C-alpha cells in the first residue's frame, strides 16, 4: 500500500510512539534529543547499552547466522537459503529489534559513524531480502516459500514483520530517511493483499504486528494501517477460530469480551498494548475494546503482577497463572514481558492523560516499578549477559547467559533502554502549558509548551537519594506548569520550594503541578521520602504468605549469599511486624558499580542436620540433633533486585520469612 496522505505531523518525532493529533491521545512524548539522561542508574544503563550491549547483540546476530540468513535471502551471500539457514524460524526478529535499538541510539548520537555504517548495512540487507511482492522473511525462502502464511498460529511471520515495521519507523524517526519505511509499507501491502475482509481470515499467534501498524499509520499519515491493525485484533476469538481457539494465543474469545489476563504472558501484553494504541488512534471504531483493556489492566495489576513488575508465573507455556499464583523461585517473569508491561503502561498513560480519571499516577508508578526492578535486572552489569527468566528466589543455579536459542530478550531490552529518554517526559494536548515528568532521572529536557519553550536541567541521584533539583534554563513568557511525580509508595508528600521558598502545588492524579511565570535561573527543589518499606503480599499469594519483602522508593531489594558468609540466606528470617525500624540505607560506591544497600538485623535458624528427615512430627527433634538450638541474630545486607547475580553464584531471596 503506497503512501496516499500527508503525514499528520510533518516533523518525525524520535520516540517509540507518536500519538500527536490522535483523537484519543492526551499526552505526547518529548523525543530523543530534546530529552537526555546525564547521570544516575538510568543514564549508566543507557551508556552501557550504547557502548557494549548494541555491539554485543550485533556480533551475536552475526555469529548465530541471523544476518547471514537475510543476506542469502537477498542474494548478497552465496549458499542455499534453506539448507544453510541458521537458528530459529523467527531469527529475523532479533535483527529487526537490534536495528530499532540502534536507530534510537542514533537519534541522540547521529555523529556515531560506526553505528551509522552498521545500520546502513543492515538496512541494505533488508532491502535486498525483500521479494518483489513485498514479502520479507528469510526462513520462508526456496522450497519453504510454499509454506508462507499457512501456519499463522505457530510460525510468527507477522510477528517478525511487526518488528521489521517498528525498526523501519524508528529508522525514519531517527534519520528522516524513508528507505526502510518503504520496505515496511511494501510488506504491509503484501500482508493486506493476502488477509482482510473478503480475503483470508487470521492473525498472528504472537501479537506485535498490531502496534507496529499503528505506528506505521502515524509515520506515513495513512490511517488505513491503523484500520488494518483493528481488523487483526478483532480476528482473535473469531468464529470459527482463526488461530486455534486456545487461550494461550488469546483466541478463546474476542478481545472485547476478555476480562481475565490469560495465556502466554508476552503475547497477551503485546496484544493489550496494541488494543490501547487503537483506542488512542481510533477511539470510535475501537470503542468496544475499552472496557476490556481497563478490566485486563486491573486483573494484571491486582492479581497477577510480581512485586518486581514482572509478569508470567508459569514456565509451562511462559504463561500467566491463576489469580494470586505468583511463586517466587518458579517465577518465569520473562524479560520480554517486563518490556511489554512497561510499554503497555506508558501507552495507557499517553492515552488517559493526567486528571482524566485514568489513574495516571498508578500507570506512572507501574512504569517505574518494572523498569527499576524486573526489567533492568535482565541485563548484567557487564552489558553482555542476559536473563530470559527473572525469578524472585534462587538456589544459586540461575545465571545470566551470553545468548539464547530463542534470543528475543536481549534485543528487546536493548531497544527499550536505547529509547529511555523518550519515555521520561510528555506534553499535554488538553493542558498544553504543562510539562509532565514521568521518570525521575538526572538530565535535561526541552519541550514546546503553550507560549514557547520550557527547558529544564534536572539534578538528582534518584533512586539512590530522594533529593531533586530542577533548574529552569528557559521559559515562555506566560504561566506554565511543571508536573512532578507524587508516587503511590511515598508515605508523605514532597515539600517543594522555588529558590528556597516553599510553594504549594496542585495535586493532580499522582502528580504535583507547580504553575507560575517561570524565569530562567529559578530552581525547584524537594526531597522524596525514601524510607525503607517492608512490603507484604495479598494473603492468597501462597509463596509470600508469612513473608516480607524490602523496598525503598521504587526499588525492591533481595538478600544474596555473597553478602552473608557462614549462613545460607534460605535460613534467614526477619522479625515479624518489626516495620522499617532497624533498617538503614547505606551508599556503597565500591559495590556493584555503586549502589545503595539496606543494612539491618535478622535471624538465622540452625542449618538442618545432614541426616535430617524430609518430614517429621511438629516439635520433634531432628535426627542427630542433641539439643534445641535457638535462632541466632545475624547482620543483613540487602541489595537492589535489579543488581543480583552479578557476583559469585549463590542463593537469593526477595521474600523473607517472618518469625
From TrEMBL:
Keywords: Hydrolase. GO terms for biological process: carbohydrate metabolic process. Residues 435-527 form the Non-reducing end beta-L-arabinofuranosidase-like GH127 middle domain. Residues 532-657 form the Non-reducing end beta-L-arabinofuranosidase-like GH127 C-terminal domain. Residues 1-42 are annotated as: Disordered. It comes from the Bacteria. Residues 12-27 have a biased composition (Low complexity). GO terms for molecular function: hydrolase activity. Residues 36-420 form the Non-reducing end beta-L-arabinofuranosidase-like GH127 catalytic domain. InterPro entries: 6-hairpin_glycosidase_sf, Beta-AFase-like, Beta-AFase-like_GH127_C, Beta-AFase-like_GH127_cat, Beta-AFase-like_GH127_middle. Pfam families: Beta-AFase-like_GH127_cat, Glyco_hydro127C, Glyco_hydro127M. This is Glycoside hydrolase family 127 protein.
